[in-house]
Amino acid sequence: MTPTFSQLIRSPVLFLAFGFGSGLAKKAPGTFGTLAAVPLWYGLQFLTPALYLVVLVITFALGCYLCGAASQKLGVHDHGGIVWDEFVGYWLTMFMAPAGWLWALYGFVLFRIFDIAKPQPIGWADRRVHGGLGIMLDDILAGIYAALVLQGTVYLLTIF
């Protein structure tokens, strides 16, 4: 069951889990959820690294609750419209990334590639870990992979 936008507005859990409504996209809700996370990252990029990490930890913990509660409410594990995990995964990708929309786009593409392809252990986590933690974990791992590639690119560009 996919909720309507009016149902999202009446449920703070669903509203946040569905990424302020971005998860209601008929096609590619994860991509639309990640896209909705980009403008929020723009504000996050100005935080100190320590404060940014605090935000990541809080949004991860909140996401475990939100995603689990939304799944229970909908009766579907990891409903495609639940995109809070994409928000946090993208923000993790962009931790300590250079400022600018080109880097934001690069991080977006990298995160979507790893989130969709699910190389190991992302695929394992996606299949084996359940509940809110399971919904969040595969996107956290995809965010780590994407961040490593992004930071590797930054490093290579600085030495050449």
UniProtKB/TrEMBL annotation:
InterPro entries, A to Z: PgpA, PgpA-like_sf, YutG/PgpA
UniProt entry tagged with the keyword RNA-binding: no
Q: Which residues form the YutG/PgpA domain?
A: 16-152
Q: Which reaction does it catalyse?
A: a 1,2-diacyl-sn-glycero-3-phospho-(1'-sn-glycero-3'-phosphate) + H2O = a 1,2-diacyl-sn-glycero-3-phospho-(1'-sn-glycerol) + phosphate
Compartments where located: Cell inner membrane
| First-listed, main subcellular location of the protein, grouped into a coarse class | membrane
Which prosthetic group or cofactor does it need? Mg(2+)
How does the UniProt record describe the way this protein sits in the membrane? Answer: Multi-pass membrane protein
| Top-level lineage group | Bacteria
What does this chain do?
Answer: Lipid phosphatase which dephosphorylates phosphatidylglycerophosphate (PGP) to phosphatidylglycerol (PG).
State the name under which the record lists this protein: Phosphatidylglycerophosphatase A
**Source organism (scientific name):** Microbulbifer harenosus
